[in-house]
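User: Quick sanity check before I run a bigger batch. Here is a single chain. Can you write out its predicted 3D structure?
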Amino acid sequence: MDWREYVGIHNRREFLRGVAGGFGLFALFDLLARDGLAARAPEVNPLAPKAPHFAPKAKHVIYMFMEGGPSQYELFDPKPALERYDGESLPEELTRDLKLAFIKPTAKVMASRYKFRKWGESGMELSELLPHLGSVADEIALIRSMHTDAFNHHPGQLLLFTGSIQFGRPTLGAWVMYGLGSESENLPGFVVLPSGKGTSGGTTNFSSGFLPSHYQGTILRTQGDPILYLSNPEGVSSENQKLTIDLVNELNRLRQAETADVEIASRIASYELAFRMQMEAPDLVDFSDESPATLEMYGLNSDSKHRREYARNCLLARRMIERGVRFVLMMDASWDDHTELNKKLPGRVHDIDQPTAALIKDLKQRGLLEETLVVWGGEFGRTPLVEMRNPRDASNAGRDHHPGAYSMWMAGGGIRGGYVHGETDELCLKVVKDPVHVHDLNATILHCLGFDHTRLTYRHMGRDFRLTDVHGNVVHALLA
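Assistant: Done. Predicted structure follows.
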């Protein structure tokens, strides 16, 4: 007897045995589901594209996360007053409310070594360290008034990506997948591209939290198989692999029909997607169809390993968007310059500047920038006060964490280009005009994707959760 026939007979017997009470239970379950008190059985494809609340400007997101907190003083927010206070301690009334991780409020001010200049028709002021980004200044909206509540890395990253410093919440990419689904049939809808030495937040930056697991991010590796265990073991053909997956998925569907467990649906979708990826992923990372000019534009021929790695991820991000991937999270580490800031920062900025600008130019020339939202920044900024872990060595100077005022930028996907939003005081200690909290940033991202952030909710443990949770406002001034 074929196994399907056996399982079918067994299930029919079970059904007939319990049919009297079964219809009542089905009716009760349907009523509970209508009231939001029970989960309905998921769609056959839980990652199928979905409609947002209103017509979106953006369909995809590339989030360029610079782990550790890039220094706004050296890159985005010129502060000539630092030179006036350089080497001095600030009055107590200026530092009283500072949240500091390692230094004391009596630490001395450190001026930036780098000059700023105006770029593009907008005249946006950016550091001399960012000439390539300056060449696309008219495409970006620079936010100089970012602020957050957490002054250490992991809590800061949790707050940025999940809206809470507590573990277990869904991340921004997972919320986007939950709301929009994916347009890619053969690749994950939410992909993570790491570079550098790894983030302190790790998988919590792309977890699905209490959402079903098919919404979580999938890491694309830089060595070996692009996705772990993508290749078949030796001796296993594609035909045998397909037969195995069909059998396992059929058993999973039978079980899922009995339990309506969304995690079983996630498992089915994952197995099927994994099989399709075996054909698609190798093609994705094969750049042989890219022109030499494109590879050169991104910096893939660089002598710097870090720049090649980061450039590869930028080009992969564009190729993924072309293939319908919904959310690409690039995580570059680490920008945590407590020491040797002037030694380490210029090289790191040099590595990411050219590929970042190339991505924006490439998206634009292919007609993809207007439907792709690009976000760049870290979990917080740096202090104007110097951190000296080795007072005998002046080159050891760095900056501590600063959540109260820092910079990020956005581009494409409905964002107003060539625009500077918000202001900080003369030392960038506090925001003095048009503050943007991380909740406001996330509300704005969701708005560009066609969502009212107050309505994108998921019921868990008796209440409706959302990414922005209990507050946050769309920053309409950032919108085109």
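The chain has one domain: 56-220+285-478.

User: Great, the batch can go ahead then.
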